[in-house]
Amino acid sequence: MAIDTDYNLLVPSRSNYFNTCFYCGCIAARHDYAPPLQYVEFYLATREPSEFLKIPSCNECVELLKACKAGTLDERRLFARAALAKKYAKALTIYDMWTTEELAGLDFSLRHSIEAGLKLGAETTQRLSFAGFDYEAGGISQQVHDTAPLVFEVFGESFDSFREALDFASKAYRIPKNALKEAFADNDNNFERAINAIHKQVAEKEFNQQLKQQCAAFAKQHKQAVIFVHKQVERYLSENTEMTIAEALQQLYDTRVKPAATRH
Ligand SMILES: [Zn+2]
Q1: How far is the CA of 99 from the centre of ligand 1 (A)?
Q2: What are 235-259's pLDDT values in tens digits?
């Protein structure tokens, strides 16, 4: 059976990180073990990658990491981060979607719950962005690589958080945050592509509505079957991408509808 002393304690290189959870930056209360104590025999027998570290952690990270069998610090950090993001997904969504100024018009109970979500979401975002710290373990120093700071671009404007970028883009391009967030994910996590895709969808929708309305009106006026008008107009438009719906209808009238005697 494993004992504590098989592990090297992870000690922050700088004193300002003493008693800090390596995974999320909260106050450390316990230790996480890489590999987990109950799998030590497995890691010794298989020599699967493991660092035998005893890691200062907060209560919550220790609890979340109980489900993690990984033996390395990096794997455990990724696991803890994903578990935190999942646990607080609702608050993170609220934090992305709302700003404090928008709360004014809400009734008390809704405002209260969104305020709580905003606070929790802000706190979770901060924990998720905690990069760990340089440390020593068993007499060896380790530098934690700072991950490059996040930058979100929206047509030339830069933001250092997704939330700010979403708020800006939603207001500037008049797209609801929900739809924009979804499109962002569907378009390679890129705001510009997301905005273009949504504008294209809107334009297509408007065009199709126009097409439907104008074809129906034409069919009624000239006593034609709507489906015939629609099909012909679509054909003209596909043959000539510069053509407008009105021009296509005119062409239909000139070539197929106008009494034969008056055709040129
Ligand atoms: Zn933690």
Answers
A1: 26
A2: 999 999 899 999 999 999 999 888 7
Of the three residues 78, 107, 142, the one that is the final residue of a domain is: 142
Angstrom distance (rounded) from CA 62 to CA 84? 11
Q: What is the whole-number distance in angstroms between the Cα of residue 255 and the centre of ligand 1?
A: 74
* Single residue among 142, 166, 194 that ends a domain in this structure: 142
Same domain for 10 and 128?
Answer: yes
Alpha-carbon distance of 164 to 184, in angstroms, equals 14
Q: How far is the CA of 183 from the centre of ligand 1 (A)?
A: 32
What pLDDT score was predicted for residue 1? 47
* Listed residues: CB within 5 A of ion ligand 1: 21, 23-24, 26, 58, 61
CA–CA separation, 112 and 99 (whole Å): 13
* 144 Cα to the center of ligand 1, angstroms: 17
Distance separating alpha carbons of residues 15 and 8, to the nearest angstrom: 18
* Cα-based angle 55, 65, 136 (whole degrees, multiple of 5): 15
pLDDT at position 126: 94
pLDDT of residue 139: 84
> Is 166 within the bounds of a domain?
yes
Residue type, 167: D
User: How confident is the model over 39-77, as pLDDT tens digits?
Assistant: 988 888 888 889 999 999 999 999 999 999 999 999 999
Residue 86 is part of which domain span?
4-142
How many Å lie between the centroid of ligand 1 and the Cα of residue 206? 50
Q: Rounded to the nearest whole angstrom, what is the distance from the C-alpha of residue 49 to the centroid of ligand 1?
A: 23
